[in-house]
Amino acid sequence: MTLLFQCQFEPLKVGLSWLRKVRIGLSDHFFQKLSLSQNNILNPMRWIHPCQKCGACCAYFRVSFYWREGDLASTPAPVPSELSQDLSDFLKIMKGTEEKRINRCIALDGKIGSRTSCTIYENRPSPCRNFTASFESGSRNKRCDEARCAHHLKPLTPEDWSRPPCDIDLTPVA
Predict the structure, then answer these.
(1) Do residues 151 and 60 touch, judged by C-beta distance below 8 A?
(2) Residues 117, 52: Cα–Cα separation, whole Å
(3) What's CA 174's distance to the chain center, in Å?
(4) Does residue 144 sit within a domain?
(5) Which domain holds residue 65?
(6) Has residue 60 been placed in a domain?
(7) Based on the structure, what is the number of domains in the chain?
(8) CB 105 within 8 A of CB 57
(9) Which residues, other chains included, contact 69 with Cβ-Cβ below 8 Å and sequence gap of 6+?
(10) Suppose 93 and one of 5, 32, 44, 87 were both cysteines; which one would form an S-S bond, judging by CB atoms 3.0 to 4.6 Å apart?
């Protein structure tokens, strides 16, 4: 029996001793097929979401949102109050995004254009939730391209959204 799957995990560089700890439930043929030894490291390819290699929008646009998004009583997953400030009576703004085009959201972690993440991803405000990267939903987003250009990054293309096939054969070893 051949099992097919797409790799969706970051490249791993782990030794055999660690794999022995996590192989519970996996049959021996899986590890025999990978031919693991102390000198052979498991390193499957992982498709990484293009936004996790970018972060340009988080360091280019002002992120303002309705004040209730930061209210614990009104929202099940509020924006942390210590990361935002009042902009007006009805709007809050993410700290670090006060100045247009000379900013970096306080919740952005990592290096723009290399590896980034949002430290409050589950609690991010609506402008962040609603922002789509170019071709993420099939069409170009000029605002995404504008932010990437400001950080000397090429605009995203449809090819950036294709996932590489996994080349590990999981056919049982006889």
Answers:
(1) yes
(2) 6
(3) 39
(4) yes
(5) 51-160
(6) yes
(7) 1
(8) no
(9) 75, 78, 79, 92, 125, 126
(10) 87
